[in-house]
Write a structure and sequence with these properties.
Elements (H helix, E strand, L loop, with lengths): L2 H14 L2 H8 L3 H15 L4 E3 L4 E3 L1 H27 L5 E7 L1 H8 L3 H7 L3 E7 L6 H4 L3 E6 L7 E14 L1 H6 L15 E3 L7 E6 L2 E6 L4 E3 L2 H9 L5 E4 H9 L4 E2 L8 E8 L7 H13 L8
Parallel strand pairs: 3-4, 3-5, 7-10
Antiparallel strand pairs: 1-2, 5-13, 6-11, 6-12, 6-13, 8-9
Helix pairs in contact: 1-2, 1-3, 1-4, 2-3
């Protein structure tokens, strides 16, 4: 009887949503995966999963057991992390979440170096602009770019990025460049759908804070698409410096209204509050802080 394998396999099946996907991620055969879950149900004397040809779902008792099983596995991982930390080692599975564009532009090039430093770590990286629940989804560290609100999570600032109003030289040659925020109402605006202020853009200028309600003619949930449209002279964008600083440096985009600065956002590494921080989390955050210490997005 391997109670740990029963427990971990059951959790994997629930998280994956199917026996096939769970077996693929664990390396077990589908038959072994099914057998471990069946043995667990037989030992407990209850049905944990409702099985149909289309989907799996937890029974009421299965939901209770799943929550406790996740807690047990988390405590085991924390205990292993504490011992590894005391031995000066970083090992195990390190689950990371990061925004898509930032992850591609500024994290992808550095993972090779990180893996060379810590070869015993297994990295599971998920790129998504969706704000996730770290505890619920079992994520060790999340990279977030935001003005952080109060949170139960622990945060470490890695660097900052400034929101920059910009457009292509061709667009500005065809349209009168805005001199102050109200002028933006007369321009083609390319908007980022996830922007917290929605259509309201705020700037700090000579007269203090000014907020203008824009009228976007193109919306997208992709900052890369916003930049591509601006480069194609389709309008004005408000995007973070980490995304547009290279195009600004090369004069492919021009900053507009430099006397009116938009907000500055922090780039943070967040992790759940725990009594003992696993060595794998410590080494990742220290590595990221060292890498971003020179504010690479400032022109």
């Amino acid at each position: 009887m391997n109670r740990f394998l029963e427990l971990s396999t059951f959790v994997s099946v629930v998280e994956a949503g199917s026996f096939v996907r769970a077996s693929e991620s664990s390396g077990l055969t589908k038959a072994a995966t099914s057998r471990y879950v069946a043995d667990l149900e037989a030992r407990l004397g209850v049905r944990l999963l409702n099985r149909t040809t289309r989907r799996l779902s937890l029974t009421s008792q299965g939901q209770i057991f799943f929550d406790r099983a996740k807690e047990i596995l988390s405590l085991l991982e924390e205990a292993e992390g504490e011992i590894s930390q005391r031995n000066g080692q970083a090992s195990g599975v390190l689950r990371i979440n990061a925004p898509v564009t930032f992850g591609l532009l500024h994290l992808a090039p550095i993972w090779g170096e990180f893996k060379q430093l810590y070869p015993n770590l297994q990295i599971e990286l998920n790129l998504s602009d969706r704000v996730i629940d770290l505890v619920e989804e079992g994520v060790d560290v999340a990279i977030r770019i935001a003005e952080l609100q109060n949170s139960s999570l622990i945060s470490r600032r890695l660097t900052t990025t400034r929101m920059i109003l910009c457009a292509s030289p061709a667009y500005l040659s065809q349209h009168s460049a805005p001199k102050s925020p109200p002028d933006l109402k007369n321009h083609d605006i390319i908007a980022y759908s996830y922007w917290a202020g929605k259509d309201e853009w705020s700037f700090e200028g000579p007269q203090g804070l000014e907020i203008v309600k824009t009228n976007p003619n193109f919306r997208t949930n992709s900052g890369d698409t916003c930049k591509a449209l601006a480069l194609a002279s389709q309008g004005i964008i408000l995007q973070p410096s980490f995304l547009v600083y290279e195009e600004l440096r090369q004069k492919k985009l021009i900053e507009i209204m430099p006397g009116y600065r938009s907000i500055e956002l922090g780039v943070y590494a967040l992790y759940p509050s725990k009594k003992h921080i696993a060595a794998k989390v410590v080494v990742l955050i220290d590595f990221l802080i060292e890498h971003f210490k020179n504010s690479p997005f400032e022109l």
